[in-house]
Specification:
With 429 residues, the chain is an alpha/beta fold. It has 20 helices and 9 strands. A hairpin with a 5-residue loop joins β6 and β7.
Length: 429
């Protein structure tokens, strides 16, 4: 019987290796009929189900293997990865903790646990896990890159640059690490060095929109009308878990509240409200008492996931502001905090907003303010746009809006300095 099982196991492994997934599944199930508690076979069957794009079946067998005494560690790892894909980051963390308790030097588990901690908004735990990952798996380029991202979040710019360089040393064609290093160098005004890394990204991934955009922010070519949606999505998907903790607590970000205070005198009850670029929903608590309908839209699915946890919105949807607006009903109010900084040409946005508002409807938004002696808009090396007061007023006027309230405000901090901004509330005539 033992020899027969070993023969079937070899056949199953060969079938899996050759891509004969149905044959591999059949053989592994045959073994499990004889040895239902074989963790290695359960794990192997789970990977077959994954290769067959059947994650639910894979999860079932991984759970069985993970529940054995002792648990099968590879199955725990695979189950942790599935839980992360499903958004159950805390469940994944519990599994990875169990793994590193038995195998403290399991670098991949530490790396994945760091990602999971980042997603649930625990940046200190994340950076601790990434440090262990690179200590136990010093040749894992992904872990070094993740460590760099975590260090950047804590404004440890020099350390982050060293981590990105280590990732590139291990994997010279690591586009993400080159891009991140470029951004890090750009923050320190080492523009020529940053340009070299963006160009390296374009060698690896010709036509990469984010790298092209960051080169344009350095003034290497004509200013584009807007940041690519892919670039903005990447930024906010990556920081969704730590967004509120770092931005609000660390950078004293108050733009949503300041914009609401400016808008409040114009508000009535039972409004249909659109939160344009809602992020994690920082402004939603202020407008909900006035809204019969509150819809949030954002380009980042991960930010929307965080917003949904507040249980404030009536609906949330992934949305590119420059796409056609096709909402089922017009709105009384559209508000947008710190979103227009990713768009230079505001004309298509204001035009769409006008078409989506009822007569007398309100639009409220913030922009980064360009110096008074400048006209139009400008893309800065921060990768954000600033707009002149005159440009914003003309854009509103061209689409039938009249400003009803305006104020200067510091819209956020950057490298410890306040960024001058402008808050505007305008009414559709």
């Amino acid at each position: 019987m033992k020899n027969e099982c070993e023969h079937t196991l070899k056949q199953a492994a060969l079938a899996h290796e050759e891509g004969r997934l149905a044959d591999a599944e059949k053989a592994y199930l045959e073994i499990l009929n004889q040895k239902p508690d074989s963790g290695s076979v359960l794990n192997a069957l789970g990977t077959v189900f994954l290769d067959q794009s059947q994650p639910d079946k894979a999860k079932t067998v991984f759970e069985k293997a993970a529940g054995l005494n002792p648990p099968h560690l590879s199955a725990c790892y695979n189950l942790g990865r599935l839980k992360q894909i499903e958004g159950d980051d805390q469940g994944a963390i519990n599994l990875y903790r169990a793994i590193v308790k038995q195998q403290p030097r399991f670098g991949l588990a530490w790396n994945n646990m760091g990602v999971a901690y980042r997603e649930i908004g625990e940046p200190e735990e994340a950076i601790s896990c990434f440090r262990r990952a690179v200590a136990f798996a010093p040749d894992m380029a992904e872990a070094w890159n993740n460590l760099g991202v975590a260090q950047d979040a804590f404004h440890m710019i020099e350390n982050a640059a060293r981590s990105y360089r280590k990732a590139i040393e291990i994997k010279p064609d690591y586009a993400s690490a080159h891009f991140n290093l470029g951004v890090s160098l750009q923050k320190r005004e080492r523009f020529e060095d940053a340009e070299d890394h963006y160009n390296k990204v374009l060698e690896i991934k010709p036509g990469d929109e984010a790298a092209n955009f960051m080169l344009q922010s350095l003034g290497t070519s004509a200013t584009p009308d807007a940041a690519p949606a892919q670039h903005v999505r990447r930024i906010f998907d990556q920081c969704a878990g730590t967004f509120e903790k770092i931005l609000v607590t660390g950078l004293e970000y108050r733009t949503p509240e300041l914009l609401f205070n400016l808008t409040r005198p114009r508000l009535k009850q039972n409004l249909a409200v659109l939160d344009l670029g809602c992020g994690t929903g920082l402004g939603s608590q202020f407008y909900r008492p006035y809204a019969k309908l509150l819809i949030g839209v954002d380009v980042s699915p991960r930010m929307l996931q965080k917003a949904s946890e507040k249980n404030i919105y009536d609906d949330l949807m992934v949305f590119d502001i420059l796409q056609d607006w096709a909402f089922s009903q017009p709105f009384d109010l559209i508000y947008s905090s710190d979103v227009f900084v990713y768009f230079g040409n505001l004309d298509p946005i204001i035009r769409s907003a006008s078409s989506a508002l009822v007569p007398g409807g309100i639009i409220a938004f913030s922009v980064e303010k360009l110096e008074e002696n400048r006209t139009g808009y400008q893309l800065f090396p921060s990768g954000r746009y600033a707009h002149s007061h005159r440009y914003v007023r003309n854009c509103l006027k061209n689409h039938g809006f009249a400003p009803v309230a305006e104020t200067d405000a510091a819209i956020r901090k950057q490298s410890g300095d306040e960024v001058p901004g402008l808050l505007i509330v305008a009414e559709k005539g």
